[in-house]
Structure formats: structure tokens, C-alpha cells
Design a protein that fits this description.
CATH superfamily: P-loop containing nucleotide triphosphate hydrolases
Radius of gyration: 14 Å
Number of strands: 7
Distance between the termini: 10 Å
Strand order of the largest sheet: 1-7-6-2-5-4-3
Bound molecules: adenosine-5'-triphosphate, magnesium ion
Helix content: 10-25%
Strand content: 25-35%
Length: about 140
């Protein structure tokens, strides 16, 4: 497994990096976006969406658990989910095995129901404007 580490110095830079990263994704890929609050997970998701040719604005799915961008991209925010069973009961796990790319924030909350071969992107806040990005 090849690994890459970057330092991003702005939200724009993180988004651009994500747009580039999107080129490596295939339909059906499930990507865990790891990192604490404000690390830049949603900023990264916006960049991936652009890389996948999605023109709709990507918003934080905080109130929806998951936003579906035309079956091409499913963007999850599992922050308020208690466990995998809850995700399953809500039908959220069905999309893991479909033809779209899944991006999941706070995936650790539903660890029991994640597919086996997930990709991972880790974002770490280094300072106010700097993020370490690893995948
Ligand atoms: N280098 C950077 N990369 C990404 N975001 C940055 C960077 N520097 C500053 N920021 C700011 O950090 C914030 C990241 O917010 P974002 O919503 O993407 O975080 P998040 O990881 O999704 O948090 P949450 O867990 O609350 O959903 C934005 O306000 C963004 O402008
Ligand atoms: Mg977010």
C-alpha cells in the first residue's frame, strides 16, 4: 500500500488535494474521513465531489446523516449515530455496496457495520490554518 503525506495551508489547498485524490477512486469505494472536529473532513469531501464531476454544492450532512449526490457520491456524517445497528436500521449501510463512492465522517461510531476494505484519509489539525493529510 502506497502512502502519501501532505501539509495543507488552507481550505482551498485541502480541497484541491481532494480533487486530485478523487482520480484514484473507483465506483463502490468506501473512504473513511478521519479527524476531529474542524479537521477539514467536509472540506475534503467538497474537493472529492468536484473531482468526481459533481456540480451540486456539497454541504455538511450534519442534519441528514447522509447526502446522496446522484448515486455517484454518498457523503455521511455519523457524528450523531450511536452504533452500527442504528445505521443499519436507517438503511444507511445499503449504499456501501452500491455503485457510488461513499465518504464517511465519524465512521468510528458505526465501526461494526463498515465494509472490510475501506480506504482511509486522515486529517490532523496542526495549527489554525494548517492540516496534515495522509492517505
Ligand atoms: N488547511 C486547511 N484545510 C482544511 N480546512 C481548513 C484549513 N485551514 C483552515 N481550515 C478551516 O477548518 C474548517 C474545517 O471545517 P470542516 O467542516 O471541513 O471540518 P470537519 O472535519 O468536517 O468537522 P466536523 O467533524 O465538525 O464535521 C473550515 O472552517 C476551514 O476553513
Ligand atoms: Mg464535517
Amino acid at each position: 500500500m502506497r502512502m502519501a503525506v501532505f501539509i495543507s495551508r488552507s481550505a482551498e489547498e485541502t480541497s484541491a488535494l481532494a480533487t486530485e485524490y478523487a482520480k484514484s477512486l473507483k465506483p463502490g469505494d468506501v473512504v473513511l474521513l478521519e479527524g476531529g472536529m474542524g479537521a477539514g473532513k467536509t472540506v475534503f469531501a467538497k474537493g472529492v465531489a468536484r473531482g468526481l464531476g459533481i456540480e451540486d454544492e456539497v454541504l455538511s450532512p450534519t442534519y441528514a446523516y447522509m447526502n446522496d449526490y446522484g448515486g455517484k457520491l454518498y457523503h455521511y456524517d455519523c457524528y450523531r449515530l450511536k452504533n452500527g445497528a442504528q445505521a443499519e436500521a436507517l438503511g444507511l449501510t445499503d449504499y456501501f455496496y452500491g455503485g457510488g463512492v461513499c465518504l464517511i465522517e465519524w465512521a468510528e461510531n458505526i465501526a461494526e457495520v463498515l465494509p472490510q476494505n475501506c480506504k482511509k484519509v486522515t486529517l490532523t489539525k496542526v495549527s489554525e490554518g494548517e492540516r496534515r493529510i495522509e492517505y
